[in-house]
Amino acid sequence: MNGVIVTTTINPPTKAVRLFDALPGWHLVVIGDRKTPDDYTLDNGTYVGTAEQEKIDKVLSDLIGWNCIQRRNFGFLVAQEMGAEIVAVVDDDNIPYEGWGTDLFVGREVEASVFTTSLPAFDPVGATNYPHLWHRGYPLPLLAQRDYSASAREPVRADVQADFWDGDPDIDAICRMQFAPNCKFDEAVFPIAANVMSPFNSQNTFLAARCLRDYFLFPHVGRMDDIWGAYYLQAKGSKVVFAKASVRQERNPHDPLVDMRREYLGYENNLAIVEAVREDPDALFGFLPDESVAAFERYRSHF
User: Cis peptide leading into 191, omega within 30 of 0?
Assistant: First the structure.
């Protein structure tokens, strides 16, 4: 199977989920949780309920815990079992634009604006028509040092294609409380890449299936689950290219103060992590609680 879309839900089927379920050429896999209604159904895709997840790996299930987006890791295992070549990871509050998932360059070279920086991490949002914003998970101590003056059009082989998101973008709680943006990203600035690692999310992202062994949404680290997974994957050698917005996010209700508390671990550690994993990807494990490391090791045993 060429393309599998993975998402999670704890709610009744949303408008976005229904739209992704209807996309030609893709197969939708929805990972349920304990709050998901018992009668949850899909028209065309595959729904993986709680009992089915525990049949896949009860130990992994217990290590991840319930009622959290990290249940999505089971979707990666299901996609692997299905023989997916490309796995798209989406949130259930994204409305796909017409043509979503058709303009892909995962697994091949694409000409991109490649930025060169001496900093240990690159912020892709600041390279757009919203230079005052920044991506969730970008190390805050580096914000004032961002410099986008050095770039060149070059071919880049993309293992990960991280599509952007119009509307309410993926910024951290501090940025959202300060600016409350409603974005329309300029398509002309994309694709974007850099000579160093960048934060990318699990909101609207395409990965070559070969990346799945090293890609994991870490439980028990709040809103750094996908960000630290992204840093680890890049430290292991995978390359990310950012592409134009292919969805509009109609964001589910969030309390920004709760989000800020769940991001604090990243505010405190992101810079140290990007510096450490450049030298040794497994240095990330020193920043994780033991149950997160154990969950990742269990997950990798399936590959």
Answer: yes
Question: Residue 129: is it exposed, middle or buried by C-beta count within 10 angstroms (0-12/13-18/19+)?
Answer: exposed
Question: What digits encode the pLDDT tens for the residues 234-253?
Answer: 999 999 999 999 999 888 77
Distance CA(269)–CA(293), nearest Å, equals: 17
Contact 213, 303 (CB under 8 A): yes
Q: How many domains does the chain have?
A: 1
Is the pLDDT assigned to residue 289 strictly greater than 90?
yes
* Neighbouring residues of 118: CB distance < 8 A, sequence distance ≥ 6: none
Question: For residue 99, is pLDDT > 70?
Answer: yes
Let me know how many helices (H) and strands (E) the chain has, helices first: 7, 11
Q: Which amino acid is at 88?
A: A
First to last CA, the chain: 18
Task: Please tell me the predicted confidence (pLDDT) of residue 1.
Answer: 55
- Note down the domain range covering 64: 3-300
Query: How far apart (Å, rounded) are the C-alpha atoms in residues 255 and 109?
Result: 40
Which pLDDT value is given to residue 215? 98
Quote the pTM value: 0.96
In the chain, % of residues over pLDDT 90: 85
Nearest alpha-carbon partner for 87 in 137, 161, 19: 161
| Sign of torsion over alpha carbons 211, 197, 190, 266 | positive
**Which amino acid, residue 209?**
A
Q: What is the CATH number of the domain that holds 24?
A: 3.90.550
Task: Tell me the C-alpha distance between 93 and 203, whole Å.
Answer: 9
* Burial class of residue 182 (count of CB atoms within 10 Å of its CB; 0-12, 13-18, 19+): exposed
Which DSSP helix (H) or strand (E) runs through 59? Answer: helix 50-64
Using CB atoms within 10 A of its CB, is residue 240 exposed (0-12), middle (13-18) or buried (19+)?
Answer: buried
Q: What is the pLDDT of residue 16?
A: 75
pLDDT grade for 36, boundaries at 50, 70 and 90: confident
